[in-house]
Write a structure and sequence with these properties.
Elements lengths: L1 E9 L13 E10 H19 L8 H6 L10 H17 L3 E8 H8 L6 H19 L6 E7 L3 H17 L6 H6 L3 E5 L6 H18 L6 H6 L5 E2 L2 E2 L2 E4 L1
Parallel strand pairs: 1-4, 3-8, 4-5
Antiparallel strand pairs: 1-2, 2-3, 6-7
Helix pairs in contact: 1-3
Protein name: DUF3800 domain-containing protein
Pfam families: DUF3800 (PF12686)
Organism: Gelidibacter salicanalis
């Protein structure tokens, strides 16, 4: 069985300039089996056709929240209500598992300084570890993991590719190289313009989770929809790693 892990981010991974209102960098991974991905892809396209009469619109969390670009139609309150009903139903009903890794940059800087390791690479390592634990727990035939990440830039993508290859060669602190190799792991970088619904889904999930990390007590109905989808272990939310 092939599993796809679509990864997108929320917040800035840089450590030099800290936004006091958003002191978090978060990577969100949506893990889904290949058969289930066909369902989520088709249902997202159905929403796009319903509101825009095509499937070329690219869902982007910020544009939706701000009603910008194609999402200016959401200034119509009735359309907006209907759109969110459709989107929320999709988030709740589809079969996928969420893994997220958040770096509290304010705490991280105090502990490790501004010139320490790349927080993007750190967050990716956490997500890969938890995903491997989850896949190992599934009773099924041989499993493969294909990771898809949105392109950021040639330099950044090359650095992340090198980090991934180091993980494959050495493993992590908790997952051996042999366990990673057994999953025949691959990584691919895709452009937002390629309109990959799996990446768009990861983008929609990332922001509410980041908001939860920043303030757990703030009302966050979007996070409440996502919460049941997290990887759970021993009744605990094991799919969300907050560091440090």
């Amino acid at each position: 069985m092939i599993y796809h892990l679509y990864i997108d981010e929320s917040g800035d991974h840089g450590l030099v300039n800290l936004d006091a209102n958003f002191p978090v960098f978060l990577l969100c991974g949506m893990l889904i089996s290949e058969p289930n991905y066909k369902s989520i892809r088709d249902n997202i396209n159905a929403i796009k056709r319903r509101f825009w009469n095509n499937k070329t619109v690219i869902f982007h969390s910020r544009d939706i929240r701000k009603c910008e670009k194609e999402f200016q139609i959401l200034f119509d309150i009735n359309l907006k209500t209907d759109f969110y009903l459709q989107l929320n139903s999709l988030i709740m009903s589809e079969d996928y598992t969420v893994f997220a890794s958040a770096i509290r940059k304010d705490r991280y800087i105090k502990t490790y300084g501004k010139l320490s390791n790349d927080v993007y690479e750190l967050a990716l390592s956490f997500i890969i570890e938890r995903t491997v634990f989850y896949l190992d727990s599934l009773v099924s035939a041989k499993k493969e993991l294909h990771i898809v990440i949105e392109k950021r830039g040639k330099k950044e993508d090359k650095k992340l590719e090198e980090h991934f290859q180091r993980l494959m060669a050495r493993g992590t602190g908790y997952v051996s190289a042999e366990r990673l190799a057994a999953l025949n792991m691959k990584i691919a970088f895709k452009d937002k313009k390629e309109n990959i619904n799996g990446l768009q889904m990861a983008d929609l999930l990332a922001y509410p989770i980041a908001r939860y990390v920043i303030d757990k007590d703030r009302a966050n109905p979007a996070f409440d929809l996502i919460e049941p989808k997290f990887y759970k272990k021993g009744g605990k939310r094991y799919g969300l790693k907050i560091f440090p």
